[in-house]
Amino acid sequence: MLKLMRRSWRYLTAALTGKFNEAADPKVQLEQAITEAQDQHRRLVQQAANVIANQKQTEMRLNRAMEEIEKQNRLARQSVAMADDATKAGDTAKATELTSAAEQFANRLVGAEREVESLKQLLLQATEAANQAKTAVSQNSMALQSKLAERQKLLGQLDQAKMQQQVNVAMAALNETVGQDVPTFEEVRDKIETQYAKALGTSELTGRSIETRMLEVEQAQVNTEAKAKLDQIRSQMGLGTGKGAGADGGGAPA
Asked: pLDDT tens digits for 40-56?
């Protein structure tokens, strides 16, 4: 039962994550990713600063320990010399005290030398860690700068993608049928072009009919003028009009 609940929870989480990623604005997600990268770089810089600070502190401790070696060595030598002088002077008690002091200085010298050796090892490790931290910061800084430069490119591509999506939606709206009773753009265009072509054809036919009537009128006018001219010629010849001549010819004596 517990295993089933875990699987269900993982499935639900994956489903919700997928829906969130689909609905989320890529531009906002890009800015979130850049902000996270910048925060991560700041944390890395702080960690590197702590490592370098530890290296510097170890170096200062080593310098102090080396100075302590020089001091204890100088005091020990001075104590030995003074004890030797006291011995030569016959002051046994003073010589004993100075010898004891020299031994104390020698013990401190041995401790300081051990500390120096230990600090040298620590310094080597701290220096290596500091160098690694510096390299990590430098590499991460370059990677961050590359991401910042690529952000502008991605934002431009995103704007272009959104514009292309709008163009695709507009073209799809023109090409697809909204419903069974709504024609497509191509169907409306074909219908309009058909009506326009018919109108042009009708106009051409109408224009030709008018021209034909005009020719008929002109021809009738020519015929009338020609007939009048013939009547004038017959009258001059004393033959009468064409109509009378036709009647006389029809009634000639046998």
From this structure: 999 999 999 999 999 99
- Shared domain for 126 and 231, answered yes or no, is no
Give the largest Cα separation in the chain, rounded.
211
Question: How far, in Å, CA of 127 to CA of 54, rounded?
Answer: 9
Per-residue confidence (pLDDT) for residue 20, from 0 to 100: 45
Residue 129 lies in a domain: yes
* CA 3 and chain centroid, separation: 42
- The range of the structural domain enclosing residue 101 comes to 23-176
Between CA 188 and CA 183 the distance in angstroms is: 6
Instruction: Give the Cβ contact number of residue 86 at 10 Å.
Output: 18
Which residues are paired to 234 by β-bridges?
none
**Residues facing residue 179 across a β-bridge:** 182
Is the domain of 118 the same as that of 216?
no
Residue 253 within a domain:
no
98 plus 28 within the same structural domain: yes
Question: What span, in angstroms and rounded, lies between the C-alpha atoms of 189 and 197?
Answer: 12
| 112 within 8 A of 72, measured Cβ to Cβ | yes
CB 184 within 8 A of CB 177: yes
- pLDDT, residue 250, reads 43
- Measured CA angle at 91 (ends 90, 96), to 5 deg: 120
Query: How many CB atoms within 10 Å of residue 24?
Result: 11
Tokens of 234: 């017959």
